[in-house]
Structure formats: C-alpha cells, structure tokens
Design goal:
Bound molecules: nicotinamide-adenine-dinucleotide
Strand content: 15-25%
Helix content: 25-40%
CATH superfamily of the largest domain: Aldehyde Dehydrogenase, Chain A, domain 1
Oligomer: single chain
Mean pLDDT: 97
Shape: globular
Largest sheet: 7 strands, mixed
Number of helices: 16
CATH architecture of the largest domain: 3-Layer(aba) Sandwich
Radius of gyration: 25 Å
CATH class of the largest domain: Alpha Beta
Number of strands: 23
CATH topology of the largest domain: Aldehyde Dehydrogenase, Chain A, domain 1
Length: 499
C-alpha cells in the first residue's frame, strides 16, 4: 500500500501523527493509498519554515517571481497527461475532465504572471506643497488554503498562484480524498525555481484545519468546500484575527424560457447536470422550465439524452460521459436523497437506481436520475446533492422562475436559456446570484475575471482569482512623504487640509 507524504521544506516528509486516511480508487472501490493526517506540531513545523522563507521571497522582485510561475506553466503543460491520470485515479472524473481541471488552474497561473503590472501601486505627485503620496501592496506573510476534493488541481492553483505571485508563502491543506495532485503541483513549482518553503502541502483533516485556524503566524485562510465547514472556518478564522474568504455549496438553477432552443437547452442541461457526476459547485442541479408546454418539451428532449449517458471508469476511453462519485459515503448520501425525492412525491422520470457496471461492482458509480414535478419544500430541492441528479421545478411564469432562484439559500451560479435579449438582461440584472450564464449553462468566469457566489455560497468580501485575488493576498500601505525646506517650524497638532 502506497503511503503518501506531506511536502514540507522542499521535501516529501512522512506523517508522524500516526493517523492516516484511506485514499480510494472510486472506479474500483479499492483503497490505493493512505494519506497522513497532520497534527498541530507538524503544522507548526511547516509554518515556521514558511515564515523564514517568505521574507526573502517577498523581497524578490515581482518580475522574478512571475518568471517562476512562467516556468511552472511550461511544466504543467509538459506533465499534463501524468497529472490528469493521477487526478482521475483518485477523483474518478474522466481524463478530458481532469485535463480541464488542470487547465482552468493553469490559466490562473498565467494571469498571475502579470503580477508586476497587478502589484503596481498608486502615486499622487504633489498631493500637497512638497508632499507626495503613494500606496503599495505588500505581501501578507504566511497564507493558507483548504481545498475540496472536486477540483484537486484547479482550486489549489486558484489560491497558491496569486498568493505566491504577491510574495507570500502558502500552506495548502488539500482534500484528504485526492491529495496526490496537490503534492505533484508543489514538486513542479520547486522544479520551476520556487524557493523551498514557499509552497508546502500539509495533508490532514479537521485537526490540521484547526491548527491553521489557531496559528498566530498564518495571516490569511482561503477555503473552498461545503457551506457548514465554510461557515465554521470563516467564523473561527475571523475571530482569530485572520483575513478569511470561504466559498461554499450551491444549488444552481437553469431557467428555460418558452422561446429557448430546446435541443440546445437540453444538451446544455445534460452536460451541466451530469458532467463530473454532478460533483461541481457550478453544476446545474435544478431545471426550471417556464410554462407547462415548455416543461413537457424539455422532459421529452432530456429523457433520451440522459438515458444514453455513458457512465464508466476513466480508463474506458474518452467517450465516457462521467465516472464514479468520490466515496461510498457520497454514493449513499445521493441514494438517500433520491429516496426522499420519491417519498416526498417527485416524479422520477429517469431512474438511475440499481445502476451496475460489470467488472466494477465495487466502484462508487451512480446512474443518472431525472426528477420532474419537484417542489421547493422537497429535500432534493433544498439540499445540495452533489451527484448525477437533476430536478425539474415547473414554473408558471418568468417571475415565478426568477423568484425560485432568488429565494434559494445558495447563490453560486445560475443560467437562463432564451432568445429574448430583454428577458436575459432583466434576469442578469435582478437575480441575486454571483455568476450568470445567458445560454451558457456553466458560467465559470475566466482567470482575469473573478469567481464567487452570493448568499450561503460565500463568506467573505473578495472573490477568487482575477484582480480580487491580488487584493486578498496583499495589504495596502500608504506613504505620505514630504521633503520640504523649512521643516523646523514646530509640530502640528491638528489634521490639516493639504496646502
Ligand atoms: P468539504 O467541506 O467536506 O471539505 C472541504 C475541505 O474541508 C477539505 O479539505 C476537508 O478536509 C476540510 N474539512 C472537512 N470537514 C472539516 C471539518 N469538520 N472541519 C474543518 N475542515 C474540514 O467539501 P468537499 O466534499 O471536499 O467538496 C464539496 C463541496 O465543496 C460542495 O459543497 C461544493 O459545492 C463545494 N465547492 C464549492 C466551490 C465554490 O467555489 N463555491 C467550488 C468547489 C466545491
């Protein structure tokens, strides 16, 4: 059995806590490795190394820091196949999807190569007589990130690329479900020229997270994962004086207007609802057709497409649509929620229960499910299922559809499918959700925009990546400088307007 490590001080380091978690191959259900779960002492050791290394890194000019990231991009491209294979083996997603995971992280690294431009401060010449004023953005120091299982390459890169570009050291506590790719990314960063101690991977669970939250040296914490944990980390981190941003769960609605191209909408829904087995925070889990006739046409278009989905292991080729879910516990939770949908009166139009894949009976596969006539009081509507289950809520009007999306506690992403620019514009303007797609089902913003939801999908002020990340990972220092002649006139005791 492979024993994974931490990556501390530029080396693979064995766990010393004596605690481990199993890492599964979700396609076969086999335990393929064990990952060490760090204790407070191991975390403190990494923090001390980070604090020492960070001083020199912050003093390295931004262009040189950017060159390390440039080299890192080259290495990610060089090792794309290796990374994707390792990612699929632990996560279960298909190889093309795993490459997308790496690619969407890589694009943020590319954006961060612009650090010299993005870190330029503001300067006011002659703010007063003989007075200049300038602001600079300085690194925070030691920063940390806690990431979810579903994007083990992309989300760590969304955090550590801007953190490092800004001159911070970064401690990554990845998901214990799929820790191999984060370890590989740390190795590649050092191959690219990053000094030892600037990126470290400390594996673990709640104990390691609590050690981060209690550590006085760590200045900021980024978190992506489920909402209850996001709330806990935000509250505890803030109470301990840290800068914190936490991104939580989702229940993303897609509104289908009567004038939508139904084939296009149905295709989009199938990809957005079932891709990556529904284990995406931007997955569409609720379809909201407007009007009974639209709903009937939508269901008619969806059913054959869903029934045709090919579910299988990542090794079965690129025409597999989606793979297993991440753990047997995730599978059991999805099955439990599906049962509540049936019990609470929703109409199960495509029944993915009892899905079986010959040769992979112990894998964590879940067949695709489509529910019709779902209502807002049902558990399958209220809770994030994070599996291949699409719920249809029929709305009588556009206003009713809009209200559904607005009343839901989550506000990560949403989409509208229509040919009517006026309806699309109204929707984008009024809906209280962070990321909006117009005839685009998964509106994940590109690296140079920012990513973030509203409502219970986020805790904190700034979004991920784009310009917000450079704000999150720096603090502003503003200098007011005077080089006057005639300074020997005595002190000034009141704030004065500038002359
Ligand atoms: P999770 O909340 O179970 O775990 C996320 C991280 O928190 C992991 O590193 C885990 O080790 C740690 N953790 C787990 N339990 C903890 C505890 N009790 N105390 C402290 N730390 C703990 O989430 P997950 O299952 O890995 O990921 C799926 C969730 O992430 C979904 O809810 C999904 O919507 C969300 N997600 C959100 C975004 C976004 O940007 N909004 C992106 C991706 C995933």
């Amino acid at each position: 059995m492979q024993e994974l490590t931490h990556y501390i001080g530029g080396a693979h380091v064995k766990g010393t806590s004596g605690r481990f978690a199993d890492v599964y191959n979700p396609a076969t259900g086999e335990v393929q490795a064990k990952v060490p779960l760090a204790n407070g002492e191991e975390m403190a050791g990494a923090v001390a190394i980070a604090a020492e290394a960070q001083v020199g890194w912050a003093a390295t000019n931004p262009q040189r820091r950017a060159r390390v990231l440039m080299a890192f991009v080259g290495l990610l491209n060089r090792d794309m196949d290796r990374l994707a294979e390792a990612l699929s083996r632990e996560h279960g997603k298909t190889i093309p999807d795993a490459k997308g995971d790496v690619q969407r992280g890589l694009e943020v690294v590319e954006y961060c190569i612009g650090a010299p431009e993005l870190l330029k401060g503001d300067y006011t010449d002659a703010a007063g007589l003989g007075i200049d004023m300038y602001s600079m953005r300085q690194a925070l120091g030691v920063t940390a990130g806690i990431t979810p299982f579903n994007f083990p390459a992309m989300i760590p890169m969304w955090m550590f690329a801007p953190a490092i570009a800004c001159g911070n050291a970064f401690i990554l506590k990845p998901s214990e479900r799929d820790p191999s790719v984060p370890l590989m990314l740390a190795e590649l960063l050092e191959e690219a020229g990053l000094p030892k101690g600037i990126i470290q991977v400390v594996n673990g669970d709640k104990e390691a997270v609590d050690a981060i939250l209690q550590d006085d040296v760590i200045q900021s914490v980024g978190f992506v994962g489920s909402t209850p944990i996001a709330e806990y980390i935000y509250a505890t981190g803030c109470a301990n004086g840290k800068r914190v941003q936490c991104f939580g769960g989702a229940k993303n609605h897609m509104i289908i207007m009567p004038d939508a191209d139904m084939d296009q909408a149905a295709d989009a829904l199938v990809g957005a609802g079932f891709g990556a087995a529904g284990e995406r925070c931007m997955a569409i889990s609720v379809a909201v057709p407007v009007g009974e006739e639209t709903a009937d046409r939508l269901i008619e278009a969806l059913v054959p497409k869903i029934e045709k989905l090919k579910v299988g292991p990542y090794t079965a080729g690129d025409d597999v649509d989606y793979g297993p879910v991440v753990t047997s516990a995730a599978k059991a939770n999805i099955e439990r929620l599906v049962q509540t949908g049936i019990d609470q009166g929703a109409n199960l139009v495509v029944d993915g229960r009892n899905f079986n894949l010959q040769g992979y009976e112990d894998g964590f596969f879940v067949g695709p499910h489509l529910f019709d006539n779902v209502t807002p009081d049902m558990d399958i509507y209220k809770y994030e299922i994070f599996g291949p289950v699409l719920s249809t809520v029929r709305a009588g009007s556009y206003e009713e559809a809009l209200k559904l999306a607005m009343d839901h506690e989550y506000g990560n992403g949403t989409a509208i499918f229509t040919r009517d620019g006026d309806a699309a514009r109204d929707f984008a303007s009024r809906v209280n959700v962070g990321m909006i797609g117009i005839n685009v089902p998964i509106p994940v913003p590109l690296a140079y925009h920012t990513f973030g939801g509203w409502k219970k999908s986020v805790f904190g002020d700034l979004n991920q990546h784009g310009p917000d990340a450079f704000k999150f990972y720096t603090r502003t220092k503003t200098v007011t400088a005077r080089w006057p002649s005639g300074i020997k006139q005595g002190g000034e005791f009141n704030f004065k307007p500038m002359d």
